[in-house]
Amino acid sequence: MRRIVLSTLKILVSAALLYLALRKVDFLELGSRFNVASLGWIGLAIAATLLQIFIGVLRWREITAECGAPLALAQATRYNLIGAFFNQTLPSSIGGDAMRLWLVARAGAGWRAATYSIFVDRAIGLIALSIVIVASLPWSYRLISDPAGRSALLLVDFAALAGGVSFLVLGRLNWPWLNRWWGTHHLRACSVIANRVLFSRERGPKIASLSLLVHLLTVVIAWCVVRSIAAPVLFGQIVQLVPPVMLITMVPISIAGWGVREATMGLAFGYAGLLSNEGVNVSLLFGAVYFVVGVFGGLVWILSAEKAAQGVEPEQGP
């Protein structure tokens, strides 16, 4: 019942925010902008999304190896594509993470190692995104002159950054009570793993580079969408506006971020002195690109050996 209520609330949140955002969209005018060149830009956006998934695979494999649940490249790629499908179909922006966890656990790694790998992967991605936003703040402040917009940007980013830093610090603490409580025990264990991979001479630079590349590709995808409809937005503006929107979209209160992303993107464009409806247009097409890639992931899921073995009990792993 609790899951049903939460899912229903997320559906309502997505529907309400989408309704408010779509009132700003003139679909006839938007459709008139599409031509052959538009299809080329959308194709590039889809290709960049697939590359982003593969870059995420490379980072996740480094983390799963540290968690005692090593994955082959093809296996991890398949799991991430399947996760992209479930990100679009489950009532949450982290539904794909839950599916990846299930797949890794059933592959023999065990539930603990699988959970740790997903949690650490998500935490490192969040920390990297917060750092990207902080690094771009001097330029963002010039772009966003509205005091409310500046305050919102600072609040969201530094809250995420403080949470990430606190998570890493937790792994450095040796207080006995942290290991006695169930919640803090597992959270600290994840923090220890995150510290090991981030500050390792071998894995650290690779993890940092891959994490930054994932977020850079998000900007590239958004830019391709902008070019597909010839929106009057500069690349530098996309660099500054998209990462904060993605940070807010990570909050699991809607279906695949729909509604939250459109409302936030429209608001961000408005704060930057751009047309709010263009922000909604870009967000809708951005979401459509991820939906198309999710459909491809759905085909991978349908044809996968994991789906055929759904009823089989998972093997016990480390």
Describe this structure in words.
This protein is an all-alpha fold. Helices cover 79% and strands 0% of the residues. The chain has 15 helices and no strands. The protein has helices spanning 2-22, 27-32, 36-66, 73-89, 95-109, 111-135, 137-143, 147-170, 177-180, 182-198, 204-228, 235-249, 260-271, 276-303, 305-308. The protein is globular. It starts with a helix and ends in a 10-residue tail after the last helix.
Radius of gyration: 20 Å
**Unreliably modeled segments:** 313-318
Number of strands: 0
Query: What is the averaged pLDDT score?
Result: 87
**Contiguous helical run count:** 15
Shape: globular
Q: Please indicate the percent range of residues in DSSP E strands (runs of 2 or more).
A: under 5%
Distance between the termini: 33 Å
Spell the H/E element sequence: HHHHHHHHHHHHHHH
User: Largest sheet, described in full?
Assistant: none
**Helical residues, percent:** over 70%
Helix/sheet category: mainly alpha
